[in-house]
Write a sequence for this structure.
């Protein structure tokens, strides 16, 4: 009977030992899983925040570049328009001067022709 009680006590001790060790491992595994999930979530949130910050910086830089390019294009267009207007004024001035010269030449020719006619009529 002593062997039976000792055997039962031994089986009970072994059973409790294995059961209690197994429960601790599961509890540790669950705790580790929760910690790992929390760390992974924290890293994902940090990565998303960094990606968002970079996207905002890139968008801001692109907007600034676009505004600068638009300003440069406007400035160039204004300069070109000013140059074209100046050239048009110069051409108009040249055309007026040429017209005045041709009018003077025509008037001189007409006056000479009239004088020649008057001289011809006087001579007859």
């Amino acid at each position: 009977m002593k062997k039976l009680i000792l055997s039962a006590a031994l089986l009970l001790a072994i059973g409790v030992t294995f059961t209690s060790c197994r429960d601790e491992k599961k509890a540790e595994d669950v705790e580790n899983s929760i910690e790992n999930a929390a760390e992974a979530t924290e890293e994902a949130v940090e990565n998303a925040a960094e990606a968002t910050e970079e996207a905002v910086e890139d968008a801001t830089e692109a907007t600034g570049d676009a505004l600068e390019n638009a300003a440069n294009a406007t400035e160039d267009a204004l300069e070109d328009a000013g140059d074209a207007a100046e050239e048009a004024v110069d051409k108009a001035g040249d055309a007026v001067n040429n017209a005045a010269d041709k009018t003077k030449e025509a008037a001189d020719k007409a006056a000479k022709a009239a004088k020649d006619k008057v001289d011809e009529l006087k001579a007859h």
About this structure: Residues 1-95 form one domain. The mean pLDDT is 82.
